[in-house]
Amino acid sequence: MDEDYSKFRGIPLREVKYAQTKFKIYKAFINELDTTSFDSINIDALCKGIGISRRAFFNYFPYKSYVLLYMVQISIIEIAIHTFQKHGKNAGLELICTGFKEFGKRVIQYPDIIFEAISCLYKKGTDLSKFSKLTNAEEILWNLDTSILNEVPTLGFRELTVTAINNAVLLNELPEGIRFETVEMALNSILFGIPLSLKNAGLEKICEIYQEQLNILWAGLRAKSKN
Questions:
Q1: Which of 36, 146, 151, 163 is the most buried (most CB within 10 A)?
Q2: Tens digit of pLDDT for each residue in 81-96?
Q3: How many CA atoms lie within 13 A of 144 on its CB side?
Q4: What is the 3-state secondary structure (H, E, C) of 191-211?
Q5: Do 137 and 5 meet the contact criterion of CB atoms below 8 Å apart?
Q6: What CA–CA distance (Å, rounded) separates 51 from 60?
Q7: Enclosing domain of residue 140
Q8: pTM, to two decimals
């Protein structure tokens, strides 16, 4: 049990224990990635090291890849909290630009983990519906700003970009009548395509290139509306 149980006051003990075990599994798995490739991680050995059964591991994460998708979920929430805190939920294109910049920083910091996570996202059979809203105990364990969490998407950039694009139209940053599906596809291509393009060339300028590509997208959308 967490030594500082007082921070969980009012939360059912069962929920706290569940969150703590999930958190422990995640931390152990990510630490293992520092020295071991994803495919080589031995679940039996990992479980033995943290004192849980193999069955318990798969109760929390049905597949190994889901540990990385959980990392994506937490990262997206942290990024969204940061962008909303910096710009406010009524901002437009700044929300997207800041979100991409923060994601770029994570790519630079954890390149191997991010590339593996991107691969997992697009594997056949990946079921993102398995990732529900974080519990109150999880929010506390991750030290998330609970005052803004209701404004934050559970998983993925979609809700963030919907808000940002709608705001951008209202703020006259983008023209009316643009197709969100088209913008979303372009944003996904930039978000995941740029890291893959830079994988062998070096990731140091990823944030700068993200900004350049976003500026090209915005300019293209504005130009198209005038034709």
A1: 163
A2: 888 888 988 899 999 9
A3: 26
A4: HHHHHHHHCCCCCCCHHHHHH
A5: no
A6: 15
A7: 64-226
A8: 0.82
